[in-house]
Design brief:
Elements (H helix, E strand, L loop, with lengths): L1 H28 L31 E5 L8 H34 L16 H24 L2 H27 L1 H17 L5 H14 L37 E2 L3 E2 L12 H4 L8 H11 L1 H39 L3 E5 H5 L5
């Protein structure tokens, strides 16, 4: 009796094992190529020339693509690498500008807790924002071209279009409101003159403007009388003086900086003072400089627009090449295979 029970149990277990093995083979065999049987359930892979049409598949079957690699033509490949190098170069430039801005903020301790409230008026913040925007957009286009990602390239193209529109609109606004901007600039420079010793940022900006434009004050050198320390009624050593950036030669013997070269200039006659300091104000000098360099400024603006439009055209051409390559791959059926309804019922979902 025990022998018969043992024989029956072994036969039963062998039957279960055979059915499980057969079930596993059935579940996986439809995913493998079946040469010579195109009508079998679960058509074979078609990346080797076997004809498979996803648009004419039978009811209850579906197919999908595994391949994300695009077979670009030679022109599209050239555009891809040109886009990559182009954006890589501008991303480096943007990162350099960003580094300069961050260095300027840290050097002046503008990020300290007691100075963080004045961060919005710090001129170095412009370098940080400009460098961040340029590097981010360039790296976006560079990455999109490298991995042939249409989503990143479309975001990059939209960002370039936004920049171009904002620059054109900004240029139109600046030209149409030039008189109001001039008046605002006069007020800002007058504030810088009055708070020259109190704000290091304003002091730096005013010195750079006066040195670069070779001017002194807002409308004339007499504007420095509105400064509390340079006023002739002031008891300090700077009374009746102007900053060293107003001097014709701010160095003694041409080598040593002389911070006191403008002391007492406001007490001199205009004929005598002109041999020591600049008499003309910075606003008239800036107006003359803009009038003399209008062509150069317009050329730089057009050059910037052309660079951005060139980036946009490269991205658009690469997108078109990727779309064409994707269409060609789909027409050849590369990277696709059938999955029958029977396997979907068994849990083969992708």
């Amino acid at each position: 009796m025990a022998k018969k029970l043992f024989t029956f149990s072994r036969t039963f277990l062998q039957g279960l094992s055979f059915r499980d093995k057969k079930k596993r083979n059935d579940e996986t065999s439809a995913l493998l190529p079946k040469a010579g049987n195109p009508d079998a359930q679960g058509s074979p892979l078609n990346s080797k020339g076997e004809e498979t049409d996803c648009h004419s598949k039978e009811k209850g079957q579906w197919c999908f693509s595994q391949s994300s690699h695009h077979h670009l033509d030679s022109l599209s490949r050239c555009v891809k690498y040109l886009t990559l190098v182009w954006n890589l170069a501008f991303s480096i430039v943007g990162l350099v500008i960003l580094a300069i801005g961050i260095w300027g903020l840290s050097d002046k301790e503008s990020l300290a807790n007691e100075q963080i409230t004045h961060l919005g008026s710090d001129p170095m913040l412009f370098f940080v924002l400009a460098g961040l925007a340029a590097s981010a957009m360039s790296l976006l286009g560079c990455t999109g071209a490298l991995i042939e990602n249409t989503c990143l390239l479309k975001i990059f193209s939209a960002g370039i279009i936004t920049f171009v529109v904002l620059e054109i609109v900004g240029g139109i606004i600046l030209f149409s409101l030039r008189n109001q901007i001039k008046a605002s600039l006069q007020n800002s420079l007058m504030v810088a003159v009055q708070r020259y010793q109190d704000d290091l940022d304003l002091q730096f900006i005013m010195d750079e403007i006066q040195t670069g434009l070779q001017c002194c004050g807002v409308e004339s050198y007499l504007d420095w009388k509105t400064n509390l320390y340079f006023n002739c009624s002031s008891p300090g050593v700077q009374a009746c003086g102007v900053p060293a950036s107003c001097c014709l030669d701010p160095r003694e013997n041409g080598t040593i900086p002389n911070s006191q070269c403008g002391f007492g200039a406001l007490a001199l006659e205009e004929f005598v003072a002109q041999s020591t300091i600049y008499l003309g104000g910075c606003v008239p000098q800036l107006s003359r400089w803009l009038n003399n360099h209008t062509g150069a400024i317009a050329s730089y603006f057009v050059f910037l627009i052309l660079i951005e439009v060139g980036s946009l055209l490269l991205a658009t051409k690469l997108l078109a090449g990727i779309a064409f390559a994707t269409t060609q791959d789909d027409s050849r059926g590369e990277g696709t295979f059938w999955l029958s309804s029977d396997h979907r019922q068994r849990g083969f979902y992708y």
